[in-house]
Amino acid sequence: MSVQQKSDVNTPSNASFKNAWWAFNGHVHTVVSSQFLPVANVDCNRIEIPTTDNDFLELDVVKGDFDKPVVAIFHGLEGSSERFYVRNLMATLYEHGISSVAMNFRGCGRRINDQPRFYHSGETNDYFTLFDWINEHYPTRELFAVGFSLGGNALIKSLGEAQLSHPVKRAVAVSPPYDLKRGSINLQKGFNRVYELRFMRTLKKKLALKREQYPELPNFSGSTLYDFDDQITAPVHGFNNADHYYESCSSKGFLSSVQTPLLLIHSKEDTLTPLAYAPFSVIEDNEYIQSIFTEKGGHVGFISSPRNWLNQTIVRWLMQD
């Protein structure tokens, strides 16, 4: 698939997003989308596939037309394949006859995973396990990918790591964190602390369950996501500390190496993963990367008029010639 010049790419302009009149700031877009708007009822087939380290991944599969692409979908921090943004995208893809496979990160599905490890913002081995599975089961189909938030960060990292050998032909990252350390600290500020407390509640619950299997896992004594990453995520996954983890896995360090057509969709009102942390010069200089940075919207939540702007934009961009 050839790369189009930035001026020629067939995407909506940054001004094309029209928010609903009552969605007056980023928090409204984020919270209402997550908690109150309808979630599509998608007919998924839940399956498990093995990993190379004797664990498993839970997938939700929606089969579309046999002659159209397959889209791999990756959720965000403490999300799952059942989150509104995943389900609604899968429904929109299916309306266009496009198959999709949504992966649950380890421990984010319907049962806890087997190994002592969890998932994190830079875990890409599981991504390639999924890509291999899709290519094995759909060998004649083009493979696309969409990642939301943390899932977008790891998707960008995988693109930068594999470069021209990456199996995905076109990708989208929605509201990714570009700088994991600044993003983690940002969660401690103002209303963002409400989001952080929700993340911490489920993370601590999963750690307690995991410690029943593996009592040698570290104890957690902190109160913030930074603390959790420093005390749990980093040592469990082979990093020295939170700063080492953040520096090694932040998508900002991989954007310059991306050689797959990639669309970034991000709101300037996103308070969880601020767009201000993006490396704009790197994005602008990479001919493979396009961007839609909207004036309004939230974190993976874009309440639009007319409705479903985000998913229609993703489908339109993925399916362009």
| Main beta-sheet annotation | 8 strands, mixed
Distance between the termini: 9 Å
CATH architecture of the largest domain: 3-Layer(aba) Sandwich
Question: Structural class given helices, strands, pairing?
Answer: alpha/beta
Radius of gyration: 18 Å
CATH topology of the largest domain: Rossmann fold
Strand order of the largest sheet: 1-2-4-3-5-6-7-8
Low-confidence stretches: 1-5, 7-12
Query: Which range does the strand content fall in?
Result: 5-15%
What is the β-strand count?
Answer: 8
pLDDT averaged residue by residue: 95
Please give the share of residues in helix.
Answer: 25-40%
Helix-strand sequence: HEEEHEHEHEHHHHEHEH
Q: How many helix segments?
A: 10
What characteristics describe this protein?
disordered N terminus; 2 domains; single chain; 8 strands; 10 helices; alpha/beta; eight-stranded mixed sheet; 321 residues; Rossmann fold
Write the layout of secondary structure elements.
Blueprint: H1 26-35, E1 45-50, E2 56-62, E3 70-74, H2 84-95, E4 99-104, H3 125-137, E5 143-148, H4 150-162, E6 170-174, H5 180-186, H6 192-213, H7 225-236, H8 242-249, E7 262-267, H9 280-285, E8 289-294, H10 309-318
Parallel strand pairs: 3-4, 3-5, 5-6, 6-7, 7-8
Antiparallel strand pairs: 1-2, 2-4
Helix pairs in contact: 7-8
Describe the structure.
By secondary structure, this protein is an alpha/beta fold. It folds into 2 domains: 14-179 and 253-318, Alpha/Beta hydrolase fold, catalytic domain (Rossmann fold), CATH 3.40.50; 180-249, no CATH class. Helices cover 35% and strands 15% of the residues. The protein has 10 helices and 8 strands. The chain has helices at 26-35, 84-95, 125-137, 150-162, 180-186, 192-213, 225-236, 242-249, 280-285, 309-318; strands at residues 45-50, 56-62, 70-74, 99-104, 143-148, 170-174, 262-267, 289-294. Strands 1-2-4-3-5-6-7-8 form an 8-stranded mixed β-sheet, sandwiched between helices. A hairpin with a 5-residue loop joins strand 1 and strand 2 (56-62). The longest helix is centred in the middle third of the chain and has 22 residues, at 192-213.
